[in-house]
TrEMBL record:
Organism, scientific name: Tectimicrobiota bacterium
Entry's Gene Ontology molecular function annotations: peptidase activity
Membrane-spanning intervals of the chain: none
SUPFAM superfamilies tied to this protein: Acid proteases (SSF50630)
Signal peptide span: none
Keyword DNA repair: no
GO biological process, one term: proteolysis
InterPro entries with a match to the protein in the record: Peptidase_aspartic_dom_sf
Organismal lineage: Bacteria, Pseudomonadati, Nitrospinota/Tectimicrobiota group, Candidatus Tectimicrobiota
Keywords: Hydrolase, Protease
Entry protein name: Aspartyl protease family protein
Length: 119
């Protein structure tokens, strides 16, 4: 199985000129995206809640959640984001991908437009 990494610009929704460019591992099995907490704080993004998550090995962890803008290749979408802690990977999850109108092609390991169906 291959890994897919993409460069993504994230921004503070309240101050969209505050940006950071990061390399994310696209994780189609992750619901939320994870960004280092220090990066989010530097952008002025504040957490609005804390949730408990279960890792693949069954371990429970808590992470703070905020909201960020994600920008890839001219596409823009707002999405929840987890405040990553030391040892956490920088991940691009499915909620952010869907907000951007993108999907991971698991065979070619590239992002492509998500078919948009209404109704």
């Amino acid at each position: 199985m291959g890994l897919t990494h993409v460069k993504v610009t994230i921004a503070n929704p309240a101050h969209p000129r505050r940006t950071a460019k990061l390399t994310f591992l696209v994780d189609s099995g992750a619901i939320y995206s994870v960004v280092p907490g220090e990066t989010l704080r530097r952008l002025g993004i504040k957490p609005h809640s804390t949730r408990t998550f279960i890792l693949a090995d069954g371990t429970e962890i808590q992470r703070r959640i905020g909201d960020a803008l994600f920008l890839i290749n001219g596409e823009r979408g707002a999405s929840p984001v987890l405040f990553g802690e030391k040892g956490d990977s920088v991940l691009l999850g499915t909620v952010s991908l869907e907000a951007l109108g993108l999907i991971l092609d698991p065979i070619k390991r590239v992002l492509k437009p998500l078919p948009m169906v209404l109704g």
